[in-house]
Design brief:
single chain, 2 helices, 69% helix, 0% strand
């Protein structure tokens, strides 16, 4: 099991989720800041969340023994 790759994937997933949450709060006006910062946070959050979600999903399916998923599908660092 490539622990470092799985840890990175989970880290990207959580960091992306935090950025998307703060970006959404900024866009709807719950958090004050510079104009356009919410959109930037949403874009950066999406760029970190999507790869983290994909790799975390691969690791989860592999851990659960789902057919068609192997540890070799996850690139090692």
């Amino acid at each position: 099991m490539p622990w470092s790759a799985v840890a990175l994937a989970v880290g990207l997933l959580l960091f992306g989720l935090i950025l998307v949450s703060f970006g959404a709060l900024h866009v709807i006006g719950r958090v004050k800041g510079k104009d356009g910062a919410g959109v930037v946070l949403l874009v950066l959050g999406g760029m970190t969340f999507l790869p983290g979600f994909y790799q975390s999903r691969l690791a989860w399916y592999t851990l659960r023994g789902r057919p068609g998923y192997r540890w070799s599908d996850i690139p090692e660092m």
